[in-house]
Design a protein that fits this description.
The protein is built from 18 helices and 19 strands. The chain is of the alpha/beta class and 508 residues long. The chain folds into three domains: 223 residues, FAD/NAD(P)-binding domain (3-Layer(bba) Sandwich); 106 residues, no CATH class; 129 residues, no CATH class. Strands 1, 2, 9, 10, 11, 12, 13 and 19 form an eight-stranded mixed sheet that branches. It has a seven-stranded mixed sheet with strand order 7-6-15-16-17-14-18. Helix 4 crosses helix 9. The protein binds flavin-adenine dinucleotide. Flavin-adenine dinucleotide binds next to helix 1, helix 16 and helix 18.
Length: 508
């Protein structure tokens, strides 16, 4: 029996969240799909690993767009609709903000959040609720418009708040509420999840972030992010998708401007009507298209013109005491010596010391995350990719340990407990780890930076012009919905929808 069929409807490169979402949606519509994954297991960054007999989450802090069982949001609903049965646990709070002059724990729910900000900064309830309600209105518009595009006049009538705020930065819109700085600081910590300072961050993106996380809370799978990946892969296989591991795709085969298959590192040439790539457009257009003469000049201009966003540096500790014993009381802490997001963003260009950290203690959302009497604590910063490109092989070990040490010391000072006295296991993930493990361009996990010149509305408008090779689609953080695990499901679905729409159009 041959390993591969003579032909598939679609080949998906990469068996992580984006690729598997695309595969699930296509299989649901009866398409014959092959997923090729370079690793020996699915999930990409959505994975876990074992050290000292303990399973450790590799990345996930919290996921957006899941929603409760009775009120699923789009990603949670997609999993339900596809029969991917994930055991979701609700994260107890939005976050604890540890900022100059502020130690405040805030919970999801627009009114609850506004009340809690008001307790810390009295007299701000009405205005903060107004900000959150505006975010919610814009979020509803984005959700509707992403499914039902409409003309500008129609949009103005039905989605006034969206249209009115779309051309403004987060800083510009928030300024109009005339809030005290401390209240603004409490509305800012999630900025790092989209990786752009407020001067440059489109208010539309901020709105989606705040409305989703604050409005509905966040979730994690009980068996770590790998529960999602494994169950997606399992379900896709049940639905007839062929998934092959340890198959690195080297080339995407193109003729007369149209993709028609791939070649793997092992040398297999496999044919399909469509190819969906999780690999960045930067990788695809710089070395994966065969022949290279099929790469349009516009594609190279596009990738050179876009700014890559952030990568990740994480220290994950398994500690020999419970969270309570170590003075850890919040699942999620954002800690910074300032909440000037633009200045913090600039600071992420270097190699530390990093001034803004995001930390989680898994056990506070998932008590069984580690064996009894222990807990897991993860300290993360999200540097810009360029700084880490300057680290030579000789310097790597020193830089890695220096940065990890600074982050551990900083959180030890915050907790009043020397974390190093309690370490059972310590794992350091650097931008190089991410790059090596996922093959993502420069270890970038956030795709292209959201800016006022290059944001979701602009990208929607240029999407067609940036479709450089027929029958080749992309799915991953580099696509329209941007970074994060939830958005990868949406990006994967979008790639599948583009394929299905083209199939339908060409069948006419
Ligand atoms: C430390 C850390 C913390 C994070 N925390 C959060 C969080 O709290 N919440 C959140 O929502 N997001 C978080 N993220 C981001 C999130 O994990 C990613 O945005 C998301 O998982 C990316 O999914 P993906 O499907 O686009 O790509 P990836 O997970 O990068 O996977 C790409 C896949 O494609 C495969 N592949 C690539 N090239 C090829 C090839 N040529 N041939 C075959 N296979 C190939 C790779 O092996 C991989 O499996 C975090 C990331 C990190 C690193």
């Amino acid at each position: 029996m041959k390993f591969y069929k003579d032909h598939y409807d679609v080949i998906v490169i990469g068996g992580a969240l984006a690729g598997l979402s695309a595969a699930l949606m296509l299989a649901d519509k009866g398409k014959d799909v092959l997923v090729l994954e370079r690793h020996n297991l699915p999930g990409g960054i959505a994975t876990s690993f074992v050290r000292g007999g303990i399973e450790i989450e590799a990345s996930l802090h919290e996921m957006m767009s899941i929603g409760s069982k009775d009120h699923r949001l789009k990603v949670g609903k997609f999993f339900d609709d596809m029969g991917v049965d994930v055991d979701w646990l609700k994260v107890p709070e939005a976050y604890h903000a540890s900022l100059p002059g502020l130690e405040v724990t805030l919970h999801p729910g627009l009114e609850t959040f506004a009340k809690e900000v008001d307790s810390a900064v009295p007299g701000t309830y009405e205005k903060v609720l107004k900000v959150l309600n505006l975010c919610h209105t814009v979020f509803d518009s984005v959700n509707e418009l992403s499914i039902h595009p409409m003309s500008k006049p129609q949009m103005l009538l039905k989605h006034e708040a969206f249209v009115k705020t779309a051309g403004y930065s987060t800083e510009e819109v928030l300024k109009t509420f005339d809030l005290p700085q401390k209240a603004l600081d409490l509305l800012a910590p999630y900025w790092i999840y989209v990786g752009t300072g407020f001067k440059e961050l489109p208010f539309t993106i901020y709105s989606v972030l705040m409305a989703d996380y604050i409005g509905y809370g966040s979730y994690i799978p009980r068996k770590f992010s790998h529960e999602m990946s494994l169950k997606m892969a399992e379900r896709a296989t049940e639905m007839g998708v062929q998934i092959e591991y340890k198959q690195h795709v080297d080339k995407i085969l193109v003729k007369d401007g149209k993709a028609y298959g791939v070649r793997t590192r092992r040398g297999d040439e496999i044919y399909a009507d469509y190819v969906i790539s999780s690999a960045y457009p930067n990788s695809v257009y710089s070395h994966m298209i065969e022949p290279a003469s099929e790469v349009p000049a516009g594609a190279i201009k596009m990738v050179n013109g876009r700014r890559l966003s952030l990568t990740a540096f994480s220290v994950i500790l398994i500690l020999d005491k419970t969270a309570e014993e170590l003075n850890i009381h919040d699942y999620s802490v954002f800690r910074g010596d300032s909440m000037d997001t633009d200045m913090l963003y600039k600071d992420l260009a270097g190699l530390g010391p990093y001034r803004y950290l995001t930390c989680i203690c898994h056990n506070l959302a998932n008590p069984d995350a580690t064996p009894k009497g222990t807990c897991s604590y993860s300290i993360t910063t999200l540097p810009q990719v360029d700084g880490w490109k300057t680290v030579s092989a000789d310097e790597y070990d020193e830089v890695k340990h220096r940065v990890a040490r600074q982050m551990i010391d900083d959180m030890s000072a915050y907790l009043g407990v020397n974390l190093l006295d309690h370490v059972l296991e310590c794992v350091i993930e650097t931008p190089m780890t991410v790059s090596h493990y996922t093959g993502m361009w420069n270890g970038c996990i956030y795709g292209y930076a959201h800016t006022m010149e290059d944001h979701i509305v602009a990208r929607l408008q240029t999407a067609e012009a940036e479709h450089f090779i027929d029958h080749l689609e992309f799915s991953g953080a580099h696509q329209i919905s941007g970074d994060g695990m939830g958005p990868q499901v949406t990006n994967g679905r979008k790639a599948a929808k583009n394929v299905l729409d083209t199939m339908a159009k060409e069948a006419k």
